[in-house]
C-alpha cells in the first residue's frame, strides 16, 4: 500500500498523509463513519452525499448475516451493492467476540459467534474471515483477532494475544493465496492486541511490525479502561511501529480522544459515538455538548448550524420537539450534525498540523468541545 506522509507536526507525532487505493485517495488523519451493514444508521443517500465521507467501515460478521455474502457477490461486491465508489474498510468480525462475548465459544483455530438475529452459531476462522472479506470486496481487510475485556487477567491476555497473532499469520497466508474476485486491489491490516500489559503489547507490536503489512491496527482499547491507560498503551505501540505505515486506532472515540490520539501519531479512526449518541439526542458542537432532550432547549430558537458545510439545519427548540415526538427525522438531523462535526474536526486538525499549531490548538479546543452545555 502506498502511504505518503506529507507533513509532520514539529511539537508532536501528529502527521498528515495520503493512502492510495483503487477506489480513491484517503487523506489522513481520517475518521471513518460506521456503516456496519453497508449503511449508516438514519442516513439516506441524499444526506450521505452531504457528509461525503472519504471512506466508510463495514463489518464482516454482520454482512455475512445480512444481507449475506451471496447477495453482495451477485451484486458485484459491496461498493456496487450500496453504490459507494470510494474506499471501504471491513472489521474482521473479531470485535463481536467482545460485544457478543456471552454467546461465544473461542477455540484455538477460530471462534463460534452467536447471531444476534436468529441464534445460529457461526464458526469464524482466519480463513473464513479473509474469504468473506474478499467477497465483500473491501479495499482494506483486517485480520481476525480476539478483543478482550480490559480487566482480563494477564495469563489469559497472553494466551489470547498469542492466539490472535497465530490467526494473523493464517490470515496473511489465505490473503495471499485467495485470488482477487473483483478488479481492484485489496490491502491487509494486522491487529495488535495485548490488553493493558505494557510488556505483552510491546512484544506483540514488535512481532507484528516484522510482518511488513500494509498497515497496523490497534485493537482492544476503549473497552472500559481509563483514558490515561489507553493513551499509555497507544504510545507504547506507536513507539515500536514503523513510521512509514498507516496506524489505525479501532473503536475510538470521543472528539478529544481523537485529537489526543492524533497527537500521539494515530492516522485512522472509527467509532459508533457520533451516530449512536446522535440517535439518543447528544449533539457535538464547537461550543460544547448538547443533550437536546433537556428542558433547557425547549424555547431555544438558536440555530444548529454547521460551518463546515454551511448547512443551516434547524433550531434547537424544533429538534427537541422532534425527539420528544420520537420522530425519525430528529435522529437523522442529530446524526448528520455529529458526522459533519467529526469531519470538520479532522479538517481543522489537518490544518493545524500543516501550520505546526496542532498541539496549541488541541489544548485550547478540548476543554471547550468537551463541556456540557
Tags for this model:
single chain, 373 residues, alpha/beta, TIM Barrel, 2 domains, eight-stranded parallel sheet, three-stranded antiparallel sheet, 14 helices, globular
CATH superfamily of the largest domain: Queuine tRNA-ribosyltransferase-like
- Rg, rounded, reads 20 Å
Q: Identify the CATH architecture of the largest domain.
A: Alpha-Beta Barrel
- The helix/strand class is alpha/beta
Tell me briefly what this model is.
The protein is α/β, with parallel strands linked by helices and 373 residues long.
Plain-language structure description:
With 373 residues, the protein is α/β, with parallel strands linked by helices. It has two domains: 2-93 and 131-269, Queuine tRNA-ribosyltransferase-like (TIM Barrel, Alpha-Beta Barrel), CATH 3.20.20.105; 278-369, no CATH class. Helix content is 41%, strand content 20%. The protein is built from 14 helices and 18 strands. The protein has helices spanning 45-51, 60-65, 69-74, 78-82, 96-99, 126-136, 154-177, 198-209, 227-238, 255-264, 273-279, 316-324, 328-354, 358-369; strands at residues 2-8, 15-21, 24-28, 30-32, 56-59, 88-91, 105-106, 111-114, 121-124, 140-142, 187-192, 215-218, 247-249, 268-270, 282-285, 288-291, 303-306, 311-315. The chain is globular, with a radius of gyration of 20 Å. The termini are far apart.
Amino acid at each position: 500500500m502506498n502511504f505518503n506522509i506529507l507533513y509532520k507536526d514539529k511539537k508532536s507525532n501528529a502527521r498528515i498523509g495520503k493512502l492510495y487505493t483503487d477506489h480513491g485517495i484517503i487523506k489522513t488523519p481520517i475518521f471513518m463513519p460506521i456503516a456496519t451493514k453497508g449503511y449508516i444508521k438514519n442516513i439516506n443517500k441524499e444526506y450521505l452525499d452531504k457528509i461525503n465521507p472519504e471512506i466508510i467501515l463495514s463489518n464482516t460478521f454482520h454482512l455475512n448475516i445480512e444481507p449475506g455474502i451471496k447477495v453482495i457477490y451477485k451484486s458485484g461486491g459491496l461498493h456496487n451493492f450500496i453504490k459507494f465508489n470510494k474506499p471501504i474498510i471491513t472489521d474482521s468480525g473479531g470485535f463481536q467476540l467482545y460485544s457478543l462475548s456471552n454467546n461465544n465459544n473461542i477455540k484455538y483455530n477460530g471462534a463460534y459467534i452467536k447471531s444476534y438475529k436468529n441464534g445460529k452459531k457461526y464458526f469464524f476462522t482466519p480463513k473464513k474471515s479473509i474469504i468473506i472479506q474478499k467477497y465483500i470486496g473491501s479495499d482494506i481487510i483486517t485480520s481476525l483477532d480476539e478483543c478482550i475485556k480490559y480487566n482480563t487477567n494477564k495469563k489469559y491476555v497472553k494466551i489470547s494475544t498469542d492466539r490472535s497473532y497465530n490467526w494473523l499469520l493464517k490470515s496473511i497466508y489465505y490473503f495471499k493465496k485467495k485470488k482477487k474476485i473483483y478488479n481492484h486491489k485489496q490491502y491487509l491490516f494486522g491487529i495488535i492486541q495485548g490488553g493493558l500489559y505494557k510488556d505483552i503489547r510491546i512484544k506483540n507490536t514488535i512481532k507484528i511490525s516484522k510482518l511488513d503489512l500494509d498497515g497496523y491496527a490497534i485493537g482492544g482499547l476503549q473497552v472500559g479502561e481509563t483514558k490515561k491507560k489507553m493513551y499509555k498503551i497507544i504510545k507504547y505501540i506507536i513507539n515500536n511501529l514503523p513510521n512509514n505505515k498507516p496506524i489505525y486506532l479501532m473503536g475510538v472515540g470521543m472528539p478529544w480522544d481523537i485529537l489526543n490520539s492524533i497527537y500521539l501519531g494515530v492516522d485512522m479512526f472509527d467509532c459508533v459515538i457520533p451516530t449512536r449518541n446522535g440517535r439518543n439526542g447528544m449533539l457535538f458542537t464547537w461550543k460544547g455538548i448538547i443533550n437536546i432532550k433537556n428542558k433547557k432547549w425547549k424555547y431555544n430558537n438558536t440555530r444548529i448550524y454547521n460551518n463546515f458545510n454551511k448547512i443551516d439545519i434547524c433550531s434547537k427548540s424544533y429538534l427537541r420537539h422532534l425527539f420528544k415526538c420520537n420522530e425519525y427525522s430528529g435522529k437523522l438531523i442529530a446524526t448528520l450534525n455529529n458526522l459533519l462535526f467529526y469531519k470538520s474536526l479532522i479538517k481543522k486538525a489537518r490544518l493545524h498540523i500543516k501550520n505546526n499549531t496542532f498541539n496549541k490548538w488541541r489544548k485550547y479546543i478540548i476543554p471547550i468541545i468537551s463541556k456540557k452545555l
